[in-house]
Amino acid sequence: MDGNIWQQVLQIAFLLEMINTVPFVIGIFDHPLQNLFIPVFLNCWLAKRALESMVNDFHRAIHRTQSAMFNQLLILISTIICLIFTFICGVEHLQRAGKKLSVFDSFYFCIVTFSTVGFGDVLPDIWPSKLLVVIMICVALIVLPIQFEELAYLWMERQKSGGDYSKQRTETERHVVLCVSSVKIDLLMDFLNEFYAHPRLQEYYVIILCPAEQDAAVRRVLRIPMWSHRVIYLQGSALKDQDLVRAKLDNAEACFILTCRCEEDRNAADYQTILRAWAVKDFAPSCTLFVQILKAENKFHVKFADHIVCEEEFKYAMLALNCICPATSTFITLLVHTSQGLEGQHSPEDWHRIYGKCSGNEVYSIVLKESIFFSEYEGNSFTYASFNAYNKYGICLIGVCPDDTKKNILLNPGPEHIMKPLDVCFYISLTKEENSCFKRGCKNSPKTQPPTSSAITSMGTVAIDLQELSIPSSLGPSLSAETNISETRKPNMVPVLELPDSPSFQTADMFSDQSKNPYQPYTGDEGSNDYVKGYPPDLPYIGSSPILCHLRKKKTPKCCMQLEKTCNHKDEEDVKAYSLKNKLIIVSAETTRNGLYNFILPLRASYRSENELCPIVLLLEHEPEAEFLETVCWFPMIYYLHGSIDSLDDLLRCGVSFAASMVVVDKESTMSAEEDYMADAKTIINVQTLFRLLSGLNIITELTHPANMRFMQFSAKDCHSLAFSKLEKKEREKGSNLSFIFRLPFAAGRVFSIGMLDTLLYQCFVKDYMITITRLLLGLESTPKSGFLCSMSITEEELCIETYGRLYEMLSSTVGDIPIGIYRTESQMLEPPETPLSQMSDKVSVFEEGKDPEEQDEAIPCELPDIQTHSLRRRSMQWASNLLGPWHAERDADRLSQQRGVLLSCSERLELTELVKKRMKNLGLSTHGFDRMNNNQSSHSYALINPSPDTKLELNDIVYIIRKDPLIKDERY
């Protein structure tokens, strides 16, 4: 009790109370003491203490916990005011004994003294005043730094945590919340670029909720004026309600939950995402939830989310389709990225311009009765509407959502589907209809439509684009904002006819040989006695979509699935022992993950012809699990080999020399590295080695980081690679989101990174149908009456069709197929497009000017020439260079250097080929038919999305087709 009394007595507040109160009481009883001066101005410190107590009680009453910064700021301001007030009153009173100072002079002297200026015009002239000045300066030097330090500490902590998103802002602003474990600069830029690519989202704010502190790169980006005013970083956890309150999640338009794919334990990363999704759904049930998950078996935990992207499902399905529909990964990646199609428009290469232009195509939707493009086709068949809309406007109608189903999206439902007013139409175009300059008053009414025998022309030279771009007329864009649809058109194409109901009309009249007809879909009448169509009896994980597939009547014995061991059913260990008709598809993976099931599923779908089924060999570094083998043993022609891509012997034993495609899946154990972008180092080197050994093999590689695509099929002396690198830098400087598309491996569909599909989830905020359409295209879902993605090759017989528009007409009017793009392979010049030599008028040496064009094409042979001939030619070139001067000598030296590089390359390939053949003989493998002398670098391939109708077809073009469901019987026939 005594301690408590002395503690109260010795407090500064009690002493101030005594100093200011006791003299008053004494003066009441003692008259002379009434003239005693009492420092009443010291009560300001008591008022400061009372104010702090009042503010604390107020915050406690309103249950406000986030008030540390406000309290500290209040304390600092009140302390400064009290110090100044005490100083002014003290100096003014003490100076009464000397040179009197007014209150203003005292205030002026206080400010000048505390600011350490000291002009000297106002000075205390007695020692009590001087002593007070010294005391006040000492107090200020002790108290104020402590207060400023505490305030600075709280401010730094607030900057790290990001502060709060005020409730007042939610009443006038819209925002979305991005929840991540850690923010990487690539992930952040992909999200911001894709999210803000849509015009109506420019006023939205992005709240990043992350438990980690900002790194230097992220902090630097968020300070850019473009992002600083609409991106807010909050450090916190989605599992804490107080952090969700800070982000005002219950008022957010949407919440994106992304998973860190660089974690060593991907299941652990998924578990964190699942908990975040549960916490968000519990806190804000009405908030639209977008979730990214890594492992397929974890997807069913977040089924309640509005939109889900499972990385394993999409990755393996895309890699599988790359084997039968080349560059499917490139096609889908370009389709889910928002672009204006301006990439490569200033390149001198024609294919750069048309490829960059077509990359701007996206999927849009509109209700039929509200559409200018499709409303006139109400009551017509889907294929009729698709072709005529393409022929008239250059847009590709790929699917509908019928008004009676509401949710089920159908890709190419075929001519059986009749367009209705409430049908939602999904189409591929450079821009959505609302942004085009076509006017409703300009469309043709049904009464004014030309008869079916009249010509409706192609609008291929016109594009919906507000900028004029120099593109060759033969490869023009699809629509034009400058052109009215009522303009005169050149007659070069007839419309799709509505086929009569009479059974006398048969497609066989046009295509008599169904087995050789590339347009006729597989009907399923023919088949092997060992195969049946059905749903897989054993699903690898909960939530797997049931897909009708080709299955074996009896499951394959597990011993027969292993290539490297003999069993009672086979004697040989070679892949030749199985007498396979089609070439192999080899998958190099670390373990038998459930995602491999999604690789097999599209390749064994029921709509694939049995003649098209390719054997699948799994090259696994670890022994497969028994549960996985039990699942895949029902599929035909599935084999595995325990080995590694590092070993040439393992590759040869699994049949790589007879393979059509080799798929290299990224390893989970190497996805994380101490240095960024080094996670792909081993994969890149292994693939490069394989490419050097087997240059003719189609190798499809998955990488962790998209930036590492430039190292695929790397050649330091390749002039084309250097030219494309410069082009990529230029596009990146212009702010393009698709600067990587001109890398040859990506354009050809030989490299893919799942990070490039992150934009699919972001696009769903505006286009909620994109995930469903992508899953249907990849074969991850099956909807009755919905079509599937396949391809057809253009042979010499189809070249008579001439143009892509005529092919569209033929396919849609006869078999109901809808083409959506072209995969084209072109020869590659020796010199890069932007070399000084290509701009010179004199491009050949003196001795090459007199040659015929055919002889000039053979100037650089692929085989080693005779040594004597090469020696004579070299001496002749040197002699000519001496005659023509130093410029010609330099030019000819460059040409000789290029020729020498080609010769050395041919020699190296010959040596590597012999090495592989000798190794095959040592292993007892047959080398019959082994010829991998193809020079893949002499050509380049690329995908065109929805090219113009007047695009000329070329030999070996591969056309992407959405084929109608073969289970639907066409009632017209």
TrEMBL record:
Top-level taxon: Eukaryota
GO MF term (any one): outward rectifier potassium channel activity
CC terms in the record's Gene Ontology section: plasma membrane
Subcellular location: Membrane
Catalytic reaction equation(s): K(+)(in) = K(+)(out)
Chief localization: membrane
Protein name: Potassium channel, subfamily T, member 2
Record organism: Cyprinus carpio (Common carp)
